[in-house]
Amino acid sequence: MDDHVDELFDAPLTCEETIEYDNRIEDNLESEIEEDQEDVNYRTRWEELEQKFARFERNYRARRIRELTTTPIKRRRGRPSKKIAA
Q1: What is the reported pTM?
Q2: What distance in Å separates the CA atoms of residue 54 and residue 44, rounded to the nearest whole number?
Q3: 2 domain residue, yes or no
Q4: In a domain, 32, yes or no
Q5: Do the domain assignments include residue 9?
Q6: Could you count the other beta carbons within 10 Å of the beta carbon of residue 68?
Q7: What distances in angstroms separate CA 28 from CA 24, 31, 35, 49, one per listed residue?
C-alpha cells in the first residue's frame, strides 16, 4: 500500500514532465505491441509454409502412388507378347 502512495507522490508535477512521463509509457506500450505483432506475423508465415509443404507432400504421395499403381497396367515393360501382336 505504501509503495503505491510513494509512486503517486513521485509522479511528475509540471505539465512538461507529465507529458514526457506519458510519452515514455506510450513508447513502452507501442514497442510491446510491435513485438507481439511481429511474433504473430512470424507464426502465421510459418504456419502458411507448413500448410504449403503438407499440401505439396500429399500431392506428391498421391501422384507417386498413382504412377506406381497405374503405370504397369497402361504400359507393359519388356517385349510385347505374341497375344497382343496377333
Answers
A1: 0.37
A2: 15
A3: no
A4: yes
A5: no
A6: 9
A7: 6, 5, 11, 32
The confidence score (pLDDT) of residue 15 equals 57
User: Is residue 24 within 8 Å of residue 34, measured between CB atoms?
Assistant: no
Summarize pLDDT for 13-46 with one digit per residue, the tens. Answer: 555 566 666 667 677 766 666 666 666 777 778 8
pLDDT at position 66 is 84
Number of domains in the chain: 1
66 in a structural domain:
yes
Q: Residues in the chain, how many? A: 86
Which domain range does residue 21 map to? 16-76
Q: CA–CA separation, 22 vs 14, rounded Å?
A: 12
DSSP the chain: -HHHHHHHHHS--SHHHHHHHHHHHHHHHHHHHHHHHHHHHHHHHHHHHHHHHHHHHHHHHHHHHHHHHHHHHHS--SSPPHHHH-
Give the pLDDT of residue 42: 75
